[in-house]
């Protein structure tokens, strides 16, 4: 019960998922309802059967700041999932973090998503390294990577998930983390539909651009033909003028 209450307290005021259950509702549940909810979570943890609504998400496209809003690739899809599902995931995550931290399974240079750690640690470490290098009258070369669409291009492998599951079994006295494994494999149908919609919109815009280019090319061809006709008319006019002049000289 303590894990459940702690997970609810740590929740943010985020929007509800497809089931329409808000965190505000969970915070005001009486003790009897919390026990019922805990039984549901324990049953899911034991059987690994996740409710179908927890596998779905409501996708809301958020435009990126300073980008062209007419381009569908300049939107960041935000997936709103079930608050009940996220409450259980937070409980599982707390257990995993406890195992990793208590057994020193994380690297000392891992500062992201850790308690009492932040990117400020890396900035201080880099500044210290630069100062020491200047004292030694040497040079520092830093390379920074910014991966575009890092999450979308991440390699996901079933074998990798299986390895994570086996490692958790070894560090949790033989208990199976079926819920976490199922959660890792599940797909967000809403997100995939949004991606397909974005690709279709991009293809439509590309087709429109190609059509516009063809029209411009056709207009350019028409202008060339018109210019050619005008030049021919000028030549005929000059020939006629020359003939008139010649006839005038003959007459004289």
From TrEMBL:
Protein origin, superkingdom: Eukaryota
InterPro entries xrefs: DNA/RNA_pol_sf, RT_dom
Stored CDD domains: RT_nLTR_like
Matching Pfam families: RVT_1
Biased composition (Basic and acidic residues): 239-252
Biased composition, class Polar residues, residue ranges: 166-184, 203-230
Disordered: annotated span: 166-252
Boundaries of every Reverse transcriptase domain copy: 62-153
Protein name per its UniProtKB record: Pol-like protein
Native source species: Plakobranchus ocellatus
């Amino acid at each position: 019960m303590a894990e459940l209450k702690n997970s609810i307290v740590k929740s943010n005021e985020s929007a509800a998922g497809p089931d329409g259950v808000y965190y505000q509702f969970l915070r005001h549940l009486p003790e009897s309802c919390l026990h019922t909810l805990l039984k549901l979570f324990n049953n899911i943890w034991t059987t690994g059967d996740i409710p179908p609504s927890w596998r779905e998400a409501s996708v809301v496209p958020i435009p990126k700041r300073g980008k062209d809003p007419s381009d569908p690739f300049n939107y960041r899809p935000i997936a709103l999932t079930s608050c009940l599902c996220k409450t259980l995931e937070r409980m599982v995550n707390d257990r995993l973090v406890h195992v990793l931290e208590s057994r020193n399974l994380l690297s000392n240079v891992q500062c992201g998503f850790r308690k009492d750690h932040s990117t400020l640690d890396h900035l201080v470490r880099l500044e210290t390294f630069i100062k020491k290098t200047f004292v030694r009258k040497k040079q520092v070369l830093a390379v920074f990577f910014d991966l575009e669409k890092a999450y979308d291009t991440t390699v996901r492998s079933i074998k990798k998930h299986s390895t994570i599951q086996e490692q958790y079994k070894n560090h949790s006295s033989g208990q199976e983390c079926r819920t976490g494994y199922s959660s890792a494999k599940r797909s967000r149908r809403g997100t995939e539909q949004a991606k397909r919609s974005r690709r279709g919109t991009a293809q439509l815009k590309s087709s429109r651009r190609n059509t516009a280019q063809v029209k411009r090319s056709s207009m350019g061809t028409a202008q060339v033909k018109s210019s050619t006709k005008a030049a021919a008319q000028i030549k005929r006019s000059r020939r006629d003028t020359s003939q008139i002049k010649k006839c005038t000289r003959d007459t004289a």
